[in-house]
Amino acid sequence: xxxxxxxxxxxxxxxxxxxxxxxxxxxxxxxxxxxxxxxxxxxxxxxxxxxxxxxxxxxxxxxxxxxxxxxxxxxxxxxxxxxxxxxxxxxxxxxxxxxxxxxxxxxxxxxxxxxxxxxxxxxxxxxxxxxxxxxxxxxxxxxxxxxxxxxxxxxxxxxxxxxxxxxxxxxxxxxxxxxxxxxxxxxxxxxxxxxxxxxxxxxxxxxxxxxxxxxxxxxxxxxxxxxxxxxxxxxxxxxxxxxxxx
Length: 246
Ligand code: IPE
Ligand code: IPE
Ligand code: MG
Description:
This protein is α/β, with parallel strands linked by helices.
């Protein structure tokens, strides 16, 4: 496809290190087609597969995707069960290829709440890819940012009570190390598909200075092109972190 003269191109020297995605819009995609919501979720999985590959190829170091929130349990049990099975299926089918591509899979969230067969697939994926050194692929599963922050606060309170650390010594770095994302840089770019301009309890601590890009594209329609567009938009932002422009 010919590129228009003034159309911006991706700057390979300014690739975001960490990209986070709220994969939203599966239900609306299905509704538009008069098919069950579950079919939207299945189509969404196909998008995810493409996007992981595209992130790897772009040289993004960390990809974090929101797959299931602590609030998504409110949905009808049929839909919840379908989502769980779909996740297990994704792990089962994609694991070999992801492993071959040196991708390291991690789960953010308490996956002990998932059904047993899901947990088995997740454990297998985590163990198999543990030593991989390529793209870090974080799947936020049964993830809620408030839950994450609260868990960290509880751990910290216990450490203080045990005399392991003094309350006045606590700083942002120490606190960050108790979050699910310990050791990882904060997201540079957060993409939300399907137009909703909200965070929905995702990475509240980590996105303090993250650039937000909301696209109207529904997640099952989201492709490499949308990813590249979002990265280009990110590259045009003036990140100041409270300071002044460079
Ligand atoms: C995102 O799509 C997938 C999950 C939340 C698991 P939705 O299912 O939220 O799709 P919409 O928002 O109803 O279109
Ligand atoms: C956020 O989407 C959660 C995931 C993408 C997994 P939701 O569809 O659950 O968010 P709300 O309900 O529109 O805020
Ligand atoms: Mg939604």
